[in-house]
Every structure is written in structure tokens, then in C-alpha cells.
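Hi C.,

You asked whether I'd gotten around to modeling the 144-residue construct. I have! Everything is below, sequence then structure, no commentary in between.
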Amino acid sequence: MFKRQPKPEELTAFGQASMGGHLGMEFLEVGPDYLVGRMPVDERTKQPFGILHGGASVALAETLGSVAASLCIDPQEEIAVGLEINANHIRSARSGWVIGRAEKIHIGRQTQVWQITIRDEHDHLICISRITMAILAAKNKRGS
């Protein structure tokens, strides 16, 4: 289903100067229709009480969903932008890594919906998120 299947390390390198890089996110696997990445639970991603910040979980979810959506389109013709995201925080994490997996729910011409499950290293469910992506014409195709 993905139109492109870059190596995980290429995706990690591409995002180094963005939020994902600042939070230590790494891509681990690019499947035919899913994407897996991880983020450390450390001083960059914890809230003051020593547990994973919910916003950091949402940042991981949005990064995975956005990148997955972008792999389904031709970047010369279209761009994928976030339209809506929600998250249910199920369990806290205090250390180690959290691993997110983005899986498609809907791939349309104008919208995509992805579900992202985030688990800790012991396979405990930490967060479940859903993101809706809008598919827009690339800037050079909009006449701007």
C-alpha cells in the first residue's frame, strides 16, 4: 500500500531537525502498510512527576501517523497534514522506551485515518491514538 518504502534509518535521519529528533524518536520498521517507531522515556519526554508526558505520546503518535500518510502519496503532487488527533492514555511509563505502531484505518483521496498504539518494552498498552490526515495539493501544484 505504501508508494515508497524508505529504510527506517532514512526516516529517522530526515526528522532529526524536527520535534521527533529533539525527543529522541527513531523509526524501527517500515512494513507494507504500517510503520513502527520508538521514543525514549527520559528527561525530554517526562512530566515533572517522573512519568511519560501525555503530549510526548501524542507527538509520537502524530509523527508516526503523519509519516505513514506521507508514504501513501506522491510528495511531488500532494502533502499530508494533520486535521485531528485524539489520544487515550491508558498506563504510565517511567523509563525505557515506548514503541508506537501506526496502522491504516482509511486511505482516501482527500483524507486518511490512522490508528497508533503505543506500548512499553513489556508490551503494556500505554496509549491509543487516532489521527485524521488531510491530503492537499503540493504547494507547487496550488499555484503558490
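If it helps when you're writing up: Residues 54-70 form the longest helix (17 residues).

Thanks,
B.
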